[in-house]
Write a structure and sequence with these properties.
binds manganese (II) ion, nine-stranded mixed sheet, Leucine Aminopeptidase, subunit E, domain 1, 457 residues, 2 domains, 19% strand, binds ligand BES, alpha/beta, binds zinc ion
């Protein structure tokens, strides 16, 4: 992907003119008649991502017009649409816009190539002046890592493979990465992770990555790592089970984000906790109405084995909380209800801390990677009451499922710890330029921007 961002050289380039919808009239008024007329015949209005190829008098490609918009995506259609060759942006962009252009270009060259050769070559862009190349590269690599992990099918990405991916990342950044596997989860007091994952062929585990100076503020990322979610004994129907290789989307996202944070050497003490399991079906699977022990000591009645994400996260969140970090962020493909509420491409954000929540929403708006805040609505807490245990893992109400799931998680974090919960789809349901159908790291750029602001030097 970064291969298609190249250094300026003596080789010939074709100019790309970025034009905004609001500035298109003025811009065209200063161009020669051929450009003006050609833009008009082609209805070029500078809409974000709109592309217009301008021919020379003898019918070769003279230049390219592209409609600009917020964030990287308006650039992402170009590398596939243009013939291979070298292109250069013929305008001065401010540094954030230059970075968006480079990032959009690189992501426009993303392809999932684990099982087949790249299907095409792309056009190359001369690195735009003012772009922080390191920043572009670390975000693009973080996003690509997350996408690749999510799109990889469960047959090739079980809990052990997810742990390997975390260890590979740790080696790259000289981080420490340990795992607690199988029955050791019982000894080390992670009973819920063990209960959910014990029926699978690959043993359940807790992945624990640590990096950075212990004197810095502690940021702990927690990612739901359900490598496949059959629903357990409350087995999902065929339509519901189909895409459940993506149920480790939260884990993939936090690994991609961790890559960016470590690559930037942000002054934080980073910890990544991933409970990695497959929610499977076998004779030793946990049952409906089993009562599980949890790390925090609260008992949980299993109203539904398909509400497994919150169970494994409860143990990981309790551990995260135990060292009083500056901030805990968990990311999870937790509920279908969040998707009903907000659709597939807008993650839900819940937080006990208004300041952090606002900061993340603002960062998301700034970089065009939006989230939408939903409430930890207190009156719904009673729906999680159980007749036999401290909590039920499902709500007795059919409504407000994303909220009750978030309220369940809140039970495992102390009120004084700033905590953010992101409920995400982790998957592009259709293809857009730079965002092909498949795994997606929603909110990664927003989260990274917030981290820069909160922890930046
Ligand atoms: N992984 C699913 C949630 C999910 C499903 C996310 C589809 C995105 C798309 C989760 O483990 C689950 O099954 N949740 C249940 C909870 C219910 C049993 C309370 C759900 O959302 O139906
Ligand atoms: Mn489930
Ligand atoms: Zn799940």
């Amino acid at each position: 992907m970064l291969d298609y961002l190249v250094n300026r050289s003596r080789a010939k380039t074709i100019s790309i003119h970025p034009v905004s919808a609001s500035g298109v009239k003025k811009w065209l008024s200063k161009q020669r008649a051929a450009v003006k007329n050609w833009a008009a015949v082609n209805d070029f209005a500078g809409k974000p991502g709109q592309i217009c190829l301008v021919p020379s008098a003898d019918g070769h490609l003279d230049s390219v017009l592209v409609g600009t918009g917020p964030g990287p995506w308006s650039w992402a259609g170009l590398p596939a649409r243009l013939r291979t060759g070298r292109y250069a942006i013929a305008a001065e962009l401010d540094p954030p816009a230059a970075q968006d252009a480079a990032m959009g270009w690189a992501l426009g060259c993303y392809e999932f190539t684990r099982y087949r050769k790249p299907r095409r070559k792309f056009a190359s862009l001369i690195w735009p002046d003012g772009a922080d190349r390191g920043r572009v590269a670390r975000l693009v690599h973080g996003i690509a890592l997350a996408r690749d992990l999510i799109t990889t099918p469960a047959g090739d990405l079980g809990p052990a493979d997810l742990a390997e991916a975390a260890k590979t990342l740790a080696r790259k950044h000289r981080a420490r990465c340990t795992t607690i596997v199988g029955d050791a989860l019982i000894e080390k007091k992670y009973p819920a992770i063990h209960a959910v994952g014990r029926a699978a062929a690959q043993a359940p585990r807790l992945i624990d990555l640590r990096w950075g100076n212990t004197r810095h503020k502690k940021l702990t990322l927690v990612g739901k790592g359900v490598c496949f979610d059959t629903g357990g004994l409350h087995l999902k129907p065929a339509s519901g089970i189909q895409l459940m290789k993506k149920d480790m989307g939260g884990a993939a996202m936090v690994l991609g984000l961790a890559h960016a944070i470590m690559d930037a050497k942000l002054p934080v003490r980073l910890r990544v906790l991933i409970p990695a399991v497959e929610n499977s079906v076998a004779g030793n699977a946990f049952h409906p109405l089993d009562v599980l022990q949890t790390r925090k000591g609260k008992t949980v009645e299993v109203g539904n084995t398909d509400a497994e994400g919150r169970l494994i996260l409860s143990d990981a969140l309790a551990e995260a909380d135990s060292e009083n970090p500056d901030l805990i962020v968990d990311v999870a493909t937790l509920t279908g209800a969040a998707r009903v509420a907000l659709g597939t491409s807008l993650p839900a954000l819940f937080s006990s801390d208004d300041a952090v929540a606002e900061a993340i929403l603002a960062a998301g708006n700034e970089v065009d990677d939006q989230l939408w805040r939903m409430p930890l609505h207190e009156p719904y807490r009673r729906y999680l009451d159980s007749h036999v245990a401290d909590l039920n893992n499902i709500s007795e109400s059919r409504y407000g499922g994303a909220i009750t799931a978030a309220l369940f998680l809140r039970e495992f974090v102390s009120a004084k710890t700033p905590w953010v919960h992101i409920d995400t789809m982790g998957w592009n349901s259709d293809s857009k330029p730079g965002r092909p159908k498949g795994g997606e790291a929603f909110a990664l750029r927003a989260m990274y921007r917030m981290c820069e602001q909160r922890y930046g030097r």
